[in-house]
Amino acid sequence: MKPSLSTPRRQRALLWVAVAVALTAVFAAYLNPHLAVELANQVWSCF
User: How far apart are CA 41 and CA 43, in angstroms?
Assistant: First the structure.
């Protein structure tokens, strides 16, 4: 019998993997200081 990808345990595991990948991408983006300064300038320009 073939295991299904729709089991709750696998869905939860895939969700956690997706969250971990997204957080890793965000943290990696902030390692670039120019990006952090640019984002701060964009937020500051709203006020």
Answer: 5
H or E stretch including 11?
helix 8-29
> Residue 19: what residue type?
V
How many Cα atoms sit within 13 Å of 41 on the Cβ side? 6
Condensed to tens digits (0 to 9), the pLDDT of residues 3-14 reads 666 788 899 999
- Taking the C-alpha atoms of residue 26 and residue 35, their distance in angstroms, rounded to an integer, is 11
* 3-class state of residue 4 by DSSP: coil
Tens digit of each residue's pLDDT (9 = 90 or more) over 10-38? 999 999 999 999 999 989 888 888 988 99
